[in-house]
Amino acid sequence: MFEWVYVYPWVKALHVIAVISWMAGMLYMPRLFVYHCSAEVGSVQSETFKVMERRLYRAIMNPAMMVAWVAGLTIAWQQSYFAVPWFHLKLAAVVLMTIIHVMLGRYVRDFAADKNRHTHKFYRIINEIPTILMIGAVIFVVVKPF
After folding, report:
1. Which of 29, 109, 117, 129 has the lowest tally of Cβ within 10 angstroms?
2. Residues 6+ apart with CB under 8 A from 108
3. Any idea where the domains of the chain sit in the sequence?
4. Is there a contact between 91 and 137 (Cβ–Cβ < 8 Å)?
């Protein structure tokens, strides 16, 4: 017989692991872009960055994001979090994080096609946005200020 009380800690652990993995990629990918900007198009270094970026995005970030969403929404539904204000703010931060994730995927494709349109300064700024969103999400979940 299925008992949520026994499954909940496992779903929560899976969610935390997925979020940590997703955040690692979200923080590392823009840093790769910063260094990729300085690599000459067609160079061995540039081609190595392309492989690193593609693998990070497809093998780590995408699966981690999907697991974080599924586990997080499962917890929110089971715990009735959709009715509390702090969860709406946390969800907004995660939606914004997902938008950044999709943007990073576009930049991966741009670099892969040797069509990067941004400077290393742009990627340094982009690198800070996931950190700010993560801080907000953690505060909303742990402190529950609203």
Report:
1. 117
2. 29, 53, 54, 57
3. 4-142
4. no
